[in-house]
Please model this.
Amino acid sequence: MNEITLGVIETRFANLVWENEPLSSKRLVELCEQEFNWKRTTTYTVLKKLCDKGLFKNEKGLVSRVLSKDEFYSLKSEKFVEDSFSGSLPAFLAAFTSRKKLTKKEIDEIKLLIENYEEG
Model:
């Protein structure tokens, strides 16, 4: 899948959809009018753009996700690690922890993630 990049407004729009989906396109227009003071045409333009990027779908007036918020940010994280650290998660963690020390809670959470991964 190609990398999906979002600007600030697109991110706010995407969060609005994720928080309320599935929702009718009419309801989305109402929410965007309240939240962003947008006209109907602006809402549909941004929605179409994000549908074309593969983030959402609008089928028969029902707007829903193609990618969940977690899936979207997982893909972005994977791309960042791939581009910045040649795909090496240990290299990313080494760079990250060289400037920010992990708390005991964070270390325990990471250990649990690894244990759960090893268990399958």
